């Protein structure tokens, strides 16, 4: 298995590659610059040598005598350090040269010196200067002097310069390596000693964890901008695709959800409504880094809780009926013991008459068996609590489908229970405590109206009780307003609504 290189070694290698390439580029530019400077200096030096030789009296007066001209040409070459000094006559015949074999040969090099103009340039591998030689008396061009220096290679010329290029390049290389080592060490400390593949694995594991868990997770920075969000949270909150990087205040969220996400509403297991679902939200601040918010969908859990509550209510109703039945039996037994037989007859007739009247009233107005059974059972519970339960004068409902029947049972049951809880704190009894239930079947919806003799909901809380899921009572385990939240969810799911005005709750459930 191939061994992975550490982050420090990878950084060191790449830094060395970058430093080496940079130094090579600097070295190449330096060598080119030095070569250019060398050619410029040599051109000026060769021009000066050629001008000095062409200006001597011996050269100007002895152009035809090669024996005389050889001495000044060789002297100039030796003193100047030039590679060669040639003297050529007007016919381009070489008459003085350090190479004897070249004397008498014809020079074909292009030049302007024989036209009276000095010329400097490169011929083959040499830097040459051509200077015309004028006749001392007639001032005509009798020939020319050529001073040349063989051009060394670029690197040889650079090494011969006063500045030691290699020394400075070596110093720069040492500085680059040292800096690379320090940088690698610092990066390793900042990454807690983790190697690149380990960092990649951590990121992949985090992404898999965030998107794999069943809870929604939202990360916020110090300005309440979303820094991360997993798929489940995006679905629960119905966030847009560009939510990451945007502030919570910019998103289309309700006020309650904004308060919880930003920390204005504190506490654990905060209940919020979003897209008809009941969410449990917890916010954990992180000092200096923002906060992490977790979300859970409690809709199904609350539905199960509601079913349990319905079972509990049924049990309470049966218990109330049993308690009421036991009290009536005790009364009848007492009257028999007192031999008040006429009173026994009147008492039994009175009881039967009241029950038959309520059953008849419910049966005549409500045609759905489930809703009718609920109202008959709630009457016994209300009676035990000293509250009168009565039907609204306009109540009428036929048989409906199972889904609507279940929603009506849930809505009516919770509204009646809320009304009983609201009246439980009142001191009045009998006629002073009553609940009126109205169920009207219209063309396209069923309207449920529940009113009671209690103080009602304050106007400023008329929206809060549904949006926040709160009521004015404290429920068990510190939870509040679960029933109202479920009522609103059922109404919104059907495209209806629920509202409250004082002590009157009105729910609309379309067919």
From TrEMBL:
Q: Which GO terms describe its cellular component?
A: plasma membrane
Predominant cellular place of this UniProt entry's protein: membrane
Cross-referenced InterPro entries: HATPase_C_sf, HATPase_dom, His_kinase_dom, PAS, PAS-like_dom_sf, PAS_fold, sCache_3, Sensor-like_sf
Question: What Enzyme Commission number(s) does the record list for this chain?
Answer: 2.7.13.3
Give the membrane topology.
Multi-pass membrane protein
Keyword Iron-sulfur assigned: no
- Name of this chain's protein: histidine kinase
């Amino acid at each position: 298995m191939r061994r992975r290189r550490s982050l420090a070694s990878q950084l060191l290698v790449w830094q060395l590659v970058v430093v080496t390439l940079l130094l090579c580029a600097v070295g190449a530019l330096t060598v080119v610059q030095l070569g250019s400077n060398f050619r410029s200096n040599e051109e000026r030096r060769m021009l000066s040598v050629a001008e000095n030789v062409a200006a001597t009296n011996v050269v100007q007066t002895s152009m035809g005598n090669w024996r005389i001209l050889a001495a000044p040409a060789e002297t100039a070459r030796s003193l100047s350090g030039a590679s060669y000094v040639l003297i050529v006559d007007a016919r381009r015949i070489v008459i003085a040269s350090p190479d004897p074999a070249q004397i008498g040969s014809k020079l074909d090099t292009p030049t302007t010196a024989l036209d009276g103009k000095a010329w400097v340039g490169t011929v083959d591998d040499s830097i040459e200067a051509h200077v015309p030689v004028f006749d001392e008396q007639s001032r005509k061009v009798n020939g020319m002097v050529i001073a040349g220096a063989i051009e060394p290679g670029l690197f040889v010329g650079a090494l011969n310069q006063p500045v030691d290029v290699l020394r400075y390049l070596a110093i720069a290389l040492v500085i680059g390596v040292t800096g690379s080592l320090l940088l690698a060490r610092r990066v390793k400390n900042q990454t807690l000693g983790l190697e690149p593949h380990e960092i990649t694995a951590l990121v992949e594991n985090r992404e898999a964890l965030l998107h794999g868990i069943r809870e929604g997770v939202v990360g916020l920075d110090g300005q309440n901008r979303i820094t991360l969000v997993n798929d489940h949270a995006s679905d629960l909150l119905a966030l847009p695709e560009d939510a990451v990087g945007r502030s919570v205040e910019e998103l289309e969220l309700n006020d309650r959800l904004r308060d919880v996400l930003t920390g204005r509403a504190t506490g654990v297991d905060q209940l919020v409504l979003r897209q008809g679902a009941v969410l449990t939200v917890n916010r954990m601040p992180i000092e200096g880094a923002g906060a992490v918010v977790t979300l859970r969908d409690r809709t199904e859990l609350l539905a199960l809780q509601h079913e349990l509550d319905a079972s509990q209510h049924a049990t309470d109703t049966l218990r109330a009926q049993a308690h009421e039945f036991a009290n009536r039996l005790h009364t009848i037994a007492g009257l028999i013991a007192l031999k008040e037989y006429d009173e026994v007859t009147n008492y039994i007739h009175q009881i039967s008459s009241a029950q038959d009247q309520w059953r008849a009233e419910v049966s005549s107005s409500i045609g759905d068996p489930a809703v009718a059974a609920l109202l008959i059972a709630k009457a016994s519970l209300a009676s035990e609590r000293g509250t009168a339960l009565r039907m609204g004068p306009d109540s009428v409902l036929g048989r409906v489908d199972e889904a609507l029947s279940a929603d009506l049972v849930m809505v009516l049951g919770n509204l009646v229970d809320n009304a009983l809880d609201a009246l439980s704190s009142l001191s009045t009894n009998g006629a002073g405590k009553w609940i009126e239930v109205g169920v009207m079947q219209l063309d396209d919806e069923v309207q449920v109206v529940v009113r009671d003799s209690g103080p009602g909901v304050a106007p400023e809380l008329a929206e809060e009780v549904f949006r926040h899921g709160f009521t004015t009572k404290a429920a068990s385990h510190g939870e509040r307003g679960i029933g109202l939240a479920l009522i609103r969810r059922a109404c919104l799911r059907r495209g209806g609504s629920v509202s409250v005005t004082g002590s009157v709750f009105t729910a609309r459930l379309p067919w």
